[in-house]
Amino acid sequence: MSDLFPKKGHDHDRCVHSALAQAEKVCDAENARFTDMRRKVFTLIWQSHKAVTAYELLDALTAEGQRVQPPTVYRALEFLTELGLVHRIESLNAYFGCDRPDCEHLGQYFICTDCGRVAEAVNEDMSNAVRKAARGVGFTIEATTVEIKGLCHDCATH
Amino acid sequence: MSDLFPKKGHDHDRCVHSALAQAEKVCDAENARFTDMRRKVFTLIWQSHKAVTAYELLDALTAEGQRVQPPTVYRALEFLTELGLVHRIESLNAYFGCDRPDCEHLGQYFICTDCGRVAEAVNEDMSNAVRKAARGVGFTIEATTVEIKGLCHDCATH
DNA sequence: CAGAAAATGATATATTATAACATTTCATCA
DNA sequence: TGATGAAATGTTATAATATATCATTTTCTG
């Protein structure tokens, strides 16, 4: 079993730095501006491996001394989402940083209902099953939402 | 190809009556009360093959002369959802009537972005792929959300 | 640097959902 | 059969999530 979820005590700064580096790369490639606000929001999203709501981000920005209104946060989220740097978790109305913003993928999200962490999988079996099912019913896929709630391995075993 | 979506001009009364009959059966089996309000909400949900928001239901009830507040609708939805008579479509914040309330299943939803219709699939390939992926990462499933947006066959070809 | 485009600020409001307490309805059994 | 408790619904208020619109600032480009 390969746990998708990060180990306890992992070096989270590394996650954040790597995510920032990837984000910069993607923005660069897309000729999109990774402005201060976008970087702040992105960094806040990466503060944990949980999904974060727009208003939690708003509060965090306020706590940092920024006086910011909802549209500002939602715009940053829209930007980040469109570039694939962040995914919206529909069943939580919350946002989650993407590990692999540089490749197209149908992501699948495991959401632990105990610790709240989220992990993204890019599982070809699942993707193919979805594509095949769609083909079977003559359906043209534009977007998919696959969210799986339950207990991560840590929470199930402790 | 077997289209999941109902044919144009199908006898929709039959859908509604069949759904009501199934709902009654399930409520009976569960010793749950299919009250007037619950039946009204359920019937309204089945007025189309689209997903319906709570406030659309509220408006429809108001139009019928009922003066109803949000909690009333949300309670009916909670009841129907818990019995599996209705599913929540997370990516639409809307509710959709279930065809197969009598058997446990991990449902998958195809949502046409053109005509707005929704169709539920119970595809074992998809379900198994999800279960297998979860097993592979030591994840214990509690609930799944699989929602596929795109064009239904009718809309793709017309 | 001027002008256009993009981003952010600010205000207001729409949409979705729930908390808390009051009242009514319904099943049951003494 | 009517008292009683549980379930359902009514009522009021408010929380949580999201967007529309117009003003201002920042950045890019020629």
UniProtKB/TrEMBL annotation, chains A, B:
<protein>
    <recommendedName>
        <fullName>Ferric uptake regulation protein</fullName>
    </recommendedName>
</protein>
<comment type="subunit">
    <text>Homodimer.</text>
</comment>
<dbReference type="InterPro" id="IPR002481">
    <property type="entry name" value="FUR"/>
</dbReference>
<dbReference type="GO" id="GO:0005829">
    <property type="term" value="C:cytosol"/>
</dbReference>
<keyword id="KW-0408">Iron</keyword>
<keyword id="KW-0479">Metal-binding</keyword>
<comment type="similarity">
    <text>Belongs to the Fur family.</text>
</comment>
<keyword id="KW-0963">Cytoplasm</keyword>
<feature type="binding site">
    <location>
        <position position="152"/>
    </location>
    <ligand>
        <name>Zn(2+)</name>
    </ligand>
</feature>
<dbReference type="InterPro" id="IPR036390">
    <property type="entry name" value="WH_DNA-bd_sf"/>
</dbReference>
<dbReference type="InterPro" id="IPR043135">
    <property type="entry name" value="Fur_C"/>
</dbReference>
<keyword id="KW-0804">Transcription</keyword>
<keyword id="KW-0805">Transcription regulation</keyword>
<dbReference type="GO" id="GO:0045892">
    <property type="term" value="P:negative regulation of DNA-templated transcription"/>
</dbReference>
<keyword id="KW-0238">DNA-binding</keyword>
<dbReference type="InterPro" id="IPR036388">
    <property type="entry name" value="WH-like_DNA-bd_sf"/>
</dbReference>
<dbReference type="GO" id="GO:1900376">
    <property type="term" value="P:regulation of secondary metabolite biosynthetic process"/>
</dbReference>
<feature type="binding site">
    <location>
        <position position="155"/>
    </location>
    <ligand>
        <name>Zn(2+)</name>
    </ligand>
</feature>
<keyword id="KW-0862">Zinc</keyword>
<dbReference type="GO" id="GO:0008270">
    <property type="term" value="F:zinc ion binding"/>
</dbReference>
<keyword id="KW-0678">Repressor</keyword>
<dbReference type="Pfam" id="PF01475">
    <property type="entry name" value="FUR"/>
</dbReference>
<dbReference type="GO" id="GO:0003700">
    <property type="term" value="F:DNA-binding transcription factor activity"/>
</dbReference>
<feature type="binding site">
    <location>
        <position position="112"/>
    </location>
    <ligand>
        <name>Zn(2+)</name>
    </ligand>
</feature>
<feature type="binding site">
    <location>
        <position position="115"/>
    </location>
    <ligand>
        <name>Zn(2+)</name>
    </ligand>
</feature>
<dbReference type="GO" id="GO:0000976">
    <property type="term" value="F:transcription cis-regulatory region binding"/>
</dbReference>
